[in-house]
């Protein structure tokens, strides 16, 4: 078997299945699109779910892909085993209701053993099958697999709960006795067992059943094939590598890390773990950030932050003290550039994010070390021998300390760590994360109701908003295909329609359906795409509609026109944001309504008011320039040559629609747009906010809504001008500034008077020294403006040194405040203000704390202040 590079292997796999009539699906973004059940794209089939559950019918039923994926459910194993990774590539071929077991098995064997392709030795390949799947066994034997190389395994049934399921076949490669890590009589020493000799390289799932909610299985209306081949594993075979890490996918990263650390890979087992973790995590964070995810404290952002921190910690184990992880980004880009050129295109941005997070972690790490030192000191002082699982998890969750690092620190101090308690905390966190993602099932039950409707339907709404010759072809009512739509809700498909189906953030058109006599027979409430691409109209039926009858379809033109304006505005906004913030900014979602538009975009950092003003100026200038908006339909490659911007969340067919706003904005888009930018009239941003890690949201209005927005704000400004007695509106800012200066001066005078009054009051209370046990005490309820005045009295008391303890209370509105101060001399004896304040704060239904010499508390019961002072005297007497 000839040695091959990872890029050669990937290409050969895709080329093989392309030769068998498959279309190559590009690797989708790691950030799932419209799938709340997934934190990350975690397999090749994850991007095919819409085809397998029947919600979308692909243009071609045969597909193949090399899909980047992330899994972090067993992150602690990364670096310690030969093949655990957070980021990996899954090669796969898929059939959606087309070929099945015989073709899948025949082609798999051809790819693996043919001299033209992988050219593996057939004697080194072993197959596992589901015991009841006699067809699979028969087909494997027919392609030449010896009977003793086919093993029946009861676990060979792919089932994730409700949805498609079925038996599978796993293919194993015998790496030879030198890789054997088990005794000859070990029960796991066989192809399919847990061992290092027989390496699983491919899993072929024969999806033929629907697992129903009641637990039963029924045959799928359309049987599917879903396969997965781990690229990293196959590369290790072709390159005869002991583990996946000694391949061209990881070694360049490891060698670069060697140059930072001065240490050498393959010299020490513990060092090797660190090199592997860093190489793995560098790949994952590079791709994740490149796909728009950013470090944060929740969701996928938390995963990125954790991976960065884990890699940095292992870097420190190798003696790397400075930021280094960001310098591995271009190394990852060079390795993957043949199939993922976008990594190098975005390397500057990705490096900036990683370096910033590394620097931030350096500060956090210092805080974590201090906390760990405090925990260890406290445990030893209390003669405890174990750090609790809760404390270990806090170090991990808040400060990024891996458990093994906490264990090492503890061992150096003669302490243990409650690992079981840590795992319990970890499981609780995972349960919270699962709950946050909701109860959506990962793949819907396949239905053939809409899938089997293949009626041709043509959308003409780009040029016509009324069609007077639409023939009703299909009616779905009460989950049945019927010939007549009765009163109530129904779904309709026409041979031609002017109604836009919701897509690309643009909402669906609304309107009416009339018969040839002019009677309104239905109101169109929503329009969505059916699995085979037809526009599916959800309507309120007013009078019965018959299939094969002709109807007049009329879009609400006013509604449609307002949507068009806002959709064109999103294109202008998309480009303007790139102009202001840089090319790394990407669209992360949009909503185009008739009354406003919402646009989400990726951006690392805050957005200032000046930034927003720049964006507004650019867009309004483009409106005033009266730029023509044109659309062309062309092939995908021609569109890319035009410079059209594509969304990574969208899949594009052979023919694409490109919308150009002059030469300023060129984008792939299937939506509706104005003919000229002047139709927008005006553009105004109404809000900007953060909606997630590295994702910002702008809401804006155009045309009449923009005018109304500005008019409302002008009225507010005029009202303010009248209130501040400005002669003209333009004088309002200066008048407000004058009022602020006057207010500041008056506030200073009031503060001065309050301070003077407090000092006069102090002269009286400081003469009233009482005795409580061994302590001299001043305790009183005073009338001051707030806690700051109480603190000033405490400062005055400290200078005068008139007593050991000071207890003051005051009422502010409906709230009570307490302050306790203790002289430095008494603090040295062990008396603490914080202990005293906590003892008496309950009298005012509150709580508090502070330093040993000064503490304060707040509560909701002013009537309890005198009792609080009395309790303080009693507490000191008993001290």
Automatic annotation (TrEMBL):
Localization in the cell: Cytoplasm
Molecular function per GO: alanine-tRNA ligase activity; aminoacyl-tRNA deacylase activity; ATP binding; catalytic activity, acting on a protein; transferase activity; tRNA binding; zinc ion binding
Cofactor names: Zn(2+)
EC number(s) given by UniProt: 6.1.1.7
Under SMART domains, the record lists: tRNA_SAD
Q: Which residues form a coiled coil?
A: 736-763
Q: Which Pfam families match?
A: DHHA1, tRNA-synt_2c, tRNA_SAD
Q: Which EC class does it fall in?
A: ligase
Name the GO cellular-component terms. Answer: cytosol
Which key words are in the record?
A: Aminoacyl-tRNA synthetase, ATP-binding, Coiled coil, Cytoplasm, Ligase, Metal-binding, Nucleotide-binding, Protein biosynthesis, RNA-binding, tRNA-binding, Zinc
Q: Which domain of life is it from?
A: Bacteria
Q: Which residues bind Zn(2+)?
A: 567, 571, 669, 673
Its transmembrane ranges are none
Q: Which reaction does it catalyse?
A: tRNA(Ala) + L-alanine + ATP = L-alanyl-tRNA(Ala) + AMP + diphosphate
Q: Which GO terms describe its biological process?
A: alanyl-tRNA aminoacylation
Indicate the segments forming the Alanyl-transfer RNA synthetases family profile domain, all copies: 4-712
Q: Which InterPro entries match?
A: aa-tRNA-synth_II/BPL/LPL, Ala-tRNA-lgiase_IIc, Ala-tRNA-ligase_IIc_anticod-bd, Ala-tRNA-synth_IIc_core, Ala-tRNA-synth_IIc_N, Ala-tRNA_ligase, Ala_tRNA_ligase_euk/bac, DHHA1_dom
Cofactor details (free text):
Binds 1 zinc ion per subunit.
The domain-related comment in the record is:
Consists of three domains; the N-terminal catalytic domain, the editing domain and the C-terminal C-Ala domain. The editing domain removes incorrectly charged amino acids, while the C-Ala domain, along with tRNA(Ala), serves as a bridge to cooperatively bring together the editing and aminoacylation centers thus stimulating deacylation of misacylated tRNAs.
Family assignment?
Answer: Belongs to the class-II aminoacyl-tRNA synthetase family.
Instruction: Describe the task this protein carries out.
Output: Catalyzes the attachment of alanine to tRNA(Ala) in a two-step reaction: alanine is first activated by ATP to form Ala-AMP and then transferred to the acceptor end of tRNA(Ala). Also edits incorrectly charged Ser-tRNA(Ala) and Gly-tRNA(Ala) via its editing domain.
NCBIfam families, alphabetically? Answer: alaS
Q: What is this protein called?
A: Alanine--tRNA ligase
Source organism of this protein record: Pediococcus cellicola
List the taxonomic lineage.
Answer: Bacteria, Bacillati, Bacillota, Bacilli, Lactobacillales
């Amino acid at each position: 078997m000839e040695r091959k590079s990872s890029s050669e292997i990937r290409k050969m796999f895709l080329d093989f299945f392309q030769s068998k009539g498959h279309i190559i699906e590009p690797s989708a973004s790691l950030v799932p699109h419209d799938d709340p059940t997934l934190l990350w794209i975690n397999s090749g089939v994850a991007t095919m779910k819409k085809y397998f559950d029947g919600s979308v019918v692909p243009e071609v039923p045969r597909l193949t892909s090399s899909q980047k994926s992330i899994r972090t459910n067993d992150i602690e194993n990364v670096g310690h085993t030969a093949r655990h990774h957070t980021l990996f590539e899954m090669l796969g071929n898929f059939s959606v209701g087309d070929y099945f077991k015989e073709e899948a098995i025949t082609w798999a064997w051809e790819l693996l053993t043919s001299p033209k392709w992988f050219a593996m030795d057939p004697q080194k390949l072993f197959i596992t099958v589901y015991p009841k799947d006699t067809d699979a066994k028969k087909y494997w034997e027919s392609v030449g697999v010896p009977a003793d190389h086919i093993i029946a395994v009861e676990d060979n049934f792919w089932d994730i709960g409700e949805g498609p399921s079925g038996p599978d076949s796993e293919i194993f490669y015998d790496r030879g006795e030198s890789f054997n890590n088990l005794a000859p009589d070990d029960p796991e020493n066989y192809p399919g067992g847990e061992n290092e000799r027989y390496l699983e390289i491919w899993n072929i799932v024969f999806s033929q059943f629907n697992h129903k909610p009641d637990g039963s299985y029924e045959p799928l209306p359309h049987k599917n094939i879903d396969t997965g081949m781990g690229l990293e594993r196959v590369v290790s075979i072709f390159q005869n590598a002991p583990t996946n890490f000694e391949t061209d996918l990881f070694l360049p990263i490891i060698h670069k890390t060697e140059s930072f650390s001065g240490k050498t890979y393959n010299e020490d087992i513990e060092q090797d773990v660190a090199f592997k973790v860093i190489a793995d995590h560098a790949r994952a964070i590079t791709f994740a950030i490149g796909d728009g995810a950013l470090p944060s404290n929740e969701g996928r952002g938390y995963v990125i932050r954790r991976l960065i921190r884990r890699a940095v910690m292992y870097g420190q184990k190798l003696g790397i003290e400075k930021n280094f992880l960001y310098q591995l980004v271009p190394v990852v880009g060079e390795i993957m550039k043949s199939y993922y050129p976008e990594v190098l295109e975005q390397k500057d941005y990705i490096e900036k994010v990683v370096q910033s997070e590394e620097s931030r972690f350096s500060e956090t790490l210092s805080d974590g070390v201090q906390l760990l030192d405090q925990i260890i000191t406290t445990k030893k002082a209390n003669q405890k021998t174990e750090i609790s699982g809760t404390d270990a998890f806090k170090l991990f969750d808040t400060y990024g300390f891996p458990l093994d690092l906490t264990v090492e620190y503890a061992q150096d101090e003669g302490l243990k760590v409650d690992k079981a308690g840590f795992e319990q905390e970890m499981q609780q966190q995972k349960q919270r994360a699962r709950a946050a993602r909701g109860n959506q099932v990962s793949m819907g039950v396949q239905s053939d109701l809409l899938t089997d409707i293949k009626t041709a339907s043509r959308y003409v709404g780009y040029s016509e908003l009324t069609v007077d010759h639409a023939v009703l072809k299909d009616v779905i009512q009460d989950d049945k295909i019927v010939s007549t739509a009765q009163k109530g809700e129904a779904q309709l498909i026409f041979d031609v329609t002017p109604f836009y189906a919701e897509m690309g953030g643009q909402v669906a058109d609304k309107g009416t359906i009339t018969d040839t006599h002019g009677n309104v027979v239905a109101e169109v409430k929503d329009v969505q795409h059916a699995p085979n691409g037809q526009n599916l109209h959800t309507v309120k039926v007013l009078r019965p509609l018959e299939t094969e009858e002709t109807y007049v379809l009329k879009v609400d033109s006013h509604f449609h026109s307002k949507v068009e304006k806002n959709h064109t505005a999103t294109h202008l906004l998309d480009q303007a944001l790139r102009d202001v913030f840089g090319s790394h900014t990407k669209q992360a979602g949009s909503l185009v309504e008739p009354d406003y538009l919402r646009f989400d975009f990726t951006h690392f950092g805050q957005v200032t008011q000046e930034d927003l003003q720049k964006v507004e100026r650019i867009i309004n200038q483009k409106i005033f320039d009266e730029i023509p908006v044109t659309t062309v339909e062309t092939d995908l490659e021609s569109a890319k040559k035009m410079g059209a911007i594509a969304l990574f969340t969208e899949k594009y067919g052979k023919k694409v629609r490109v919308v150009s706003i002059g030469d300023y904005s060129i984008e792939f888009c299937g939506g509706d747009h104005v003919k000229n930018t002047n139709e927008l009239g005006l553009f105004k941003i109404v809000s900007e906010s953060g909606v997630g890690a590295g994702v910002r949201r702008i809401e804006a209005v155009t045309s009449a809504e923009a005018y109304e927005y500005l008019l409302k704000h002008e009225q507010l400004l005029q009202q303010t001008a009248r209130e501040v007695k400005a002669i003209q509106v333009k004088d309002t800012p200066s008048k407000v500034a004058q009022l602020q200066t006057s207010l500041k001066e008056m506030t200073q005078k009031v503060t001065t008077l309050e301070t003077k009054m407090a000092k006069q009051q102090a002269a009286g209370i400081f003469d009233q020294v009482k005795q409580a046990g061994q302590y001299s005490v001043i305790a009183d309820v005073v009338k001051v403006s707030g806690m700051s005045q109480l603190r000033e009295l405490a400062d005055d008391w400290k200078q005068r040194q008139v007593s050991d303890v000071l207890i003051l209370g005051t009422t502010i509105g409906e709230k009570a405040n307490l302050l306790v101060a203790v002289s430095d001399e008494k603090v040295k004896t062990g008396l603490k203000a914080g202990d005293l304040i906590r003892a008496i704060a309950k009298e005012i239904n509150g709580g508090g704390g502070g330093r040993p010499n000064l503490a304060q508390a707040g509560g909701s019961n002013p009537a309890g202040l005198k009792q609080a002072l009395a309790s303080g005297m009693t507490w000191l007497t008993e001290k």
